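Is manganese (II) ion placement plausible here? Inputs below.
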Amino acid sequence: MIRLTNPDKPLYPAALHVTKQRLVDYWRRVAPFALPHIAGRPLSLLRCPNGAAHGCFFQRHHRRGLPAGLKAAPIAGSDGEREEFLFLDDLSGLEGAAQMDALELHIWGVRFDALERPDRLVFDLDPDPSVTFEEVKRAARDFRALLEAAGLASFALLTGGKGLHVVAPLDDALDWPTFTGFARGVASRLAADDPARFTAMATKARRHGRIYIDYRRNDRGASAVAPFSPRARETPSVATPVSWDELGRIERADAYCLDKVERRLAALRADPWAGYFDLRQGVSPAALRMFAGT
Ligand code: ATP
Ligand code: MN
Ligand code: MN
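Reply from A.M.:
I modeled the complex. Tokens:
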């Protein structure tokens, strides 16, 4: 157990009961579900020393004075320079993150033990404010179908913000350029098939009335919010894995808060992402060809 300073500090101006201590209690309950997604991966922490309202900043490098439980290991950048990046592998790391006022944990699509072999494909669906959540859900199902056609099972994550992530675990057979190219190919195919609903281009003007498919989360060095991470938004919402069946009945991406996730996990009969950690699926040469050059 780590030493917590200022345990009574409120972290959400709109939910004063959510203190640092409350965040640690959340991690203690949720760790068995969260750690398999987070452990051993390079991590970016969104630290909010003044609470979720303002002044949050990302930290992904080692700094002196890290709480016990947070670790660091070297990664070579594109210039070959090695830098120390954060990771954790047990509950004390989650507690350490809370001690640093990290409200959000973001993971890379790769593990430290195979840094050049990404294994987590994520499509970040970012709706323009005029797009309804029903439309975002439909987009997620379209991704699921397209990935299914490529032989890949996928899973839905409520981000706790505005949109959804569609996640496919992969074996580690692809290098970064092939992995990123495949992600771009899938996203571009959907955008080309239905340009009124989607854009895969970052240009702000293109997003009007559409869903932006942010496939760049699949670049080396990019991150996506970790399953079960709280969000530094107005309310203490949580990035929550849901089953495709459940998704049909959910009305908002921020439908789950800390309390609700704890209750949900305590009552859960089946894992909403059943099979996620047992899947051994890869991108076949045929699937690579299917989305090449798009
Ligand atoms: P929403 O559903 O509201 O879009 P989100 O988590 O998908 O929630 P995005 O703004 O789409 O939020 O960002 C996607 C991901 O990009 C984040 O989860 C985060 O991991 C990463 N990201 C964005 N900005 C930064 C940043 N400045 N530094 C590090 N990572 C970032
Ligand atoms: Mn998003
Ligand atoms: Mn995004």
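Short version: Residues 44, 58, 106, 124, 126, 159, 161-163, 214, 217, 223-225, 253 surround adenosine-5'-triphosphate (ligand 1) (CB under 6 Å).
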